[in-house]
Write a structure and sequence with these properties.
By secondary structure, the chain is mainly alpha-helical. Helix content is 78%, strand content 0%. The chain is elongated, with a radius of gyration of 17 Å. It starts with 7 loop residues before the first helix and ends in a 7-residue tail after the last helix.
């Protein structure tokens, strides 16, 4: 997916989410209407948090990115749940979780940038964000 209006992190999340939507059709009905709904909700929440963070002030941005990172960790855990339920094989689970970990690293880097920027502003070295 290529869209110049989307951030790199959002593109990465969408590149995980879209194949997941297709994959979730193969999950058993009972887990599709329980675990898969939760996974989809977490993806939706992450997309919303990241999108909102892009247009927020630094204080709000830090909170939103932190929440997105928590959602990301929860998402990774949910894929392990699907593995344990034998709804995903190891190869698919590892593919999803490694991509999710990459998003986590990106969010962590973004969080550290915000913290560094905020520290500079607190010291009076940065007038505006």
């Amino acid at each position: 997916m290529q869209n110049k209006k989307l951030s790199v992190i959002l593109i990465k999340v969408l590149n995980i989410y879209i194949p997941w939507i297709k994959e979730s059709r193969n999950i058993s009905k009972i887990n599709r209407y329980s675990v898969c709904i939760k996974v989809n909700k977490i993806f939706d929440d992450m997309i919303e948090l990241i999108s909102e963070a892009q247009f927020s002030n630094e204080v709000s941005k830090l909170q939103l990115v932190t929440k997105a990172n928590v959602k990301n960790d929860t998402l990774k855990f949910m894929f392990y749940v699907l593995l344990e339920l034998k709804e995903l094989d190891m190869i698919k689970c590892e593919r999803y979780t490694s991509d999710i970990e990459e998003v986590g690293k990106m969010l962590y880097g973004w969080k550290n940038q915000i913290i560094a920027k905020t520290k500079l502003a607190d010291k009076g070295q940065l007038e505006k964000y």
